[in-house]
Amino acid sequence: MPKEPIRPNIGSIKPYVPGKPVEEAERELNISGVIKLASNENPLGPSPKAIEAINKYSKEVNLYPDQNCYQLNRLLAEKLRMPPENIAIGNGSDELMLLIALAYISAGDEVIISFNTFSTYEMVSSLMEASLVKVNLKDYRYSLSAMAEAVTQKTKLIFICNPNNPTGTINTQKEMDGLLSKVPKNALVIIDEAYGEYVESLEYPNSLKYVKDRMNVVVLRTFSKIYGLAGLRVGCAIARPEIIRYLNLVRLPFSVNRLAQIAASVSLSDNEHVSKSIKNNSEGKAYLYRELEKLGVSYVKSEANFIFINLNNDADAAFLEMMRRGVIVRPLTSFGMPGSIRVTIGTPEQNKKFINALSGSLKP
Ligand SMILES: *Cc1c(COP(=O)(O)O)cnc(C)c1O
After folding, report:
1. CATH for 49-267?
2. Which atom of ligand 1 is nearest to the CA of 192?
3. SS3 113
């Protein structure tokens, strides 16, 4: 067979491994009532205000969206107390990661990423023919000191997931200050705060401060997690206006659809839904900690809406066993952690169902 005439680096890109969809599990096992705690989606759903707005404006999908996301941009600016020029909106924060890579990486530039983290950083960097520099986690946490040591003159981007997916751990303000003091002027630090709203630790960095200080930092946030809009795809980047202009320059027109812009806009003002989601998460987390301890299963304390669980044996087998019991979790083999799983904190009923499935799947 002749070789595909693709760019050579494309062949080495690993396909993204998503959480298994409920419909697929039910079809394969010929069962029903399966629940999915595998993609860190909001178990309470979207804000009722968002549902209402989507219904109301669905008739307008014949019209192109506002390519500048004017209204959402202004509302976000107000909420974050940042000028609108400091904010770019994307088709999920995933799109913004791609735009950063497109705008900044030339072939051979070094990109520093961690092992055992969100795979999109590696994907977008490989796509742009970056030279990847990978550092290990330390005690399930990002080692910002190891990242600082990996910096060279060729470093272009440094990706930090805070809290880290899949371990749920955070880096502190002091650690972040320390790293940023060692980053050269021609490098950009991306701080992905997809789970930032769930953090309870008082040591969590105020990352917008770095943007206000005009540092080379891009903060990423998303509507996919606490706002429950994963299916609509909206995220934002907060950075110096110069950076924001370049990200918008490489973005395709209309990448953020009409209903997504409207739903995100109204969700921003639903503080009640956000508080409910935080409360559900922190109570669910406490329940799961207690039950995991009763089962003698080891886990990592989480600052996010999921828990990293160490099964110390074949997580793929445990995943299958739990799925047969009606619960889809995330095996972490694709994250380079084949002995562990990640479970999203669900509603009280879902958490209970998960504990039953886990308990049933543990070998005596
Ligand atoms: C879920 C998640 C995101 C969000 O991605 P979207 O494209 O906004 O849905 C970003 N980063 C991490 C680490 C995540 O886990």
Report:
1. 3.40.640.10
2. 11
3. strand
CA distance 309 to 330: 10
CA 225-196-237 angle, to 5 degrees, is: 80
Which of 283, 238, 237, 195 minimizes the C-alpha distance to 98? 237
| Tens digit of each residue's pLDDT (9 = 90 or more) over 327-357 | 999 999 999 999 999 999 999 999 999 999 9
Return averaged pLDDT per consecutive 10 residues of the chain, 364 residues in all: 82 87 94 96 98 98 98 98 98 98 98 98 97 98 98 98 98 98 96 98 98 98 98 98 98 97 98 98 98 97 98 86 96 94 98 97 80
Tell me the C-alpha distance between 201 and 90, whole Å: 28
Averaged pLDDT score across all residues of the chain: 96
- Give, using CA atoms, the residue closest to atom 11 of ligand 1: 194
| Count of CA atoms in the C-beta half-sphere (13 A) of 116 | 24
| Ligand 1 site, residue 196, Cβ cutoff 6 A | no
Probe target for ligand 1 pocket from 225, 226, 302, 306, with the most ligand atoms within 8 Å of CB: 225
Residues 312, 149: Cα–Cα separation, whole Å: 31
CB distance 161 to ligand 1 below 6 Å: yes
In CATH, the architecture of 10-46+271-362 is: Alpha-Beta Complex (3.90)
Q: Do 134 and 159 contact (CB within 8 A), yes or no?
A: no
Provide the residue ranges of all domains of the chain, joining segments of one domain with +: 10-46+271-362, 49-267
Rounded Cα distance between 260 and 237, Å, is 16
Q: Can the peptide bond before residue 166 be classed as cis, meaning omega within 30 degrees of 0?
A: yes
For position 1, what pLDDT does the model report?
Answer: 60
